[in-house]
Amino acid sequence: MKTPKWWMTEHPSVVSFRWNNGVTFGASYSFMISAALGYLVLIFFLHSWMKRRPNPEMDVSRLHHGALRLSSMMHYKT
């Protein structure tokens, strides 16, 4: 069985990937800008929503932090 690191970094489709403007999905400046703005809007919405809840430590933020930590550990695992 292949490791998660192999699937994310050494798989042949990942290694041979080339970014072609106009051909690759999301390879335009408008997509990049709209994705970044959409992310910021989502973050500000979630932040304001979390302030209204009685418990400021939401499960969503814990899950997000855990997912980032897990992906980081898989990436740097030797």
| Termini Cα gap | 16 Å
Query: Biggest β-sheet, characterized?
Result: none
Helix count from the secondary structure assignment: 4
General form: flat
Helical fraction: 55-70%
Mean pLDDT: 80
Strand content: under 5%
Structural class: mainly alpha
How many strand elements? 0
Radius of gyration: 18 Å
The low-confidence parts are: none
Oligomer: single chain
The succession of helices and strands, N to C, reads HHHH
Explain the overall architecture.
The model has no long low-confidence stretch (mean pLDDT 80). This protein has a domain of 53 residues. The protein is flat. By secondary structure, it is mainly alpha-helical.
